[in-house]
Design goal:
With about 260 residues, this protein is an alpha/beta fold. It has 11 helices and 10 strands. α9 (about 175-180) packs parallel to α10 (about 210-220).
Length: about 260
Amino acid sequence: MSKPTVALQLYTVRDFTAKDVPGTLKKVKEMGYDAVELAGIYDMEPAAFKALLDEIGLKAVSAHVMADVFKPDVKGTVEMFKSLGCKVIGIPWASTDDLPGGKNYPAMKALMEEIAVHCKANGIKQIYHNHEFEFAKLPCGETIFDALFADIPADVLQVQLDTGWVTVAGLDPVSFIQKYTGRCPAVHLKDVVFVEPGKHEDRPVGQGVQDFPAVTKAAEENGVEIFVVELDEAVGITSMEAAKQSLDYLKTIGY
C-alpha cells in the first residue's frame, strides 16, 4: 500500500502568493513539499505556470475550481487543469441554494454531471469539498452532505473530506473516511482548536484537537491518494510558518 502524496493547498499561503508567486512556490518546495493543490493560477498562462512549477519541482496534483469558473467553458477548463498535471479537481464551496434542498440544486447537479463527462475523458476525478454547513440536516433527516453523495453517483462525484470542518461540525472524520471508502481520493488535513463555545481557530496540523494518526491510518486503509494541508487562517504565526510546521509534524508520523 503506497502512502498518499502530501500536498499544500496554496490558498493557505495566499497572502504570500499575492506578493510573489515564484518566490512563494520556491519556499514551499524548500520547506519540503513536492506537491500542491491549486486555488487559481495567478493570472498566468497555463503553459507558463506549468513551466514555473516544473522549474521549481512542484507537482499540481489537484485543484479547487469554483463553479463560476467552470461555467463559461467546462471542457476547456477541465483540459487546462489536466495540462497542469491535476488528477483531482472540483468545486470547493457552494451555497445551500446550490446543494440538496436548495432552489438551484438541479442546475448545480447538471453542471457537476457535465464536468464529470470531461473529467472522465481526461482521467480526472471530480470532487466536492465540504465545510461545516453541509452537515446540517434536511427535513427528511439526512444531512446535506450525505444527500449530495447519495443523489450523485460515485462515477460522477467523489468526496474531498475536510477534517477540520467535520470536527467543527461535531463529527468524527474517521467515520466519514470509512463511510466513503473508495470514494474519497483526497483529504484535507486541517487542525482546529475551540477557543470558546461556537468559535474555533485553525492550527498547524498536529497542534489542535485532531487525532491525525487515526485519520491518516483510516485514509490509507480506505483508498485516499492525496493528503492536502490547509489552514484558512494562521493564528500567531505566518501562513508559511504554519505550512512548514504542519509538514514537519506529518513527517513525525511517517509522511
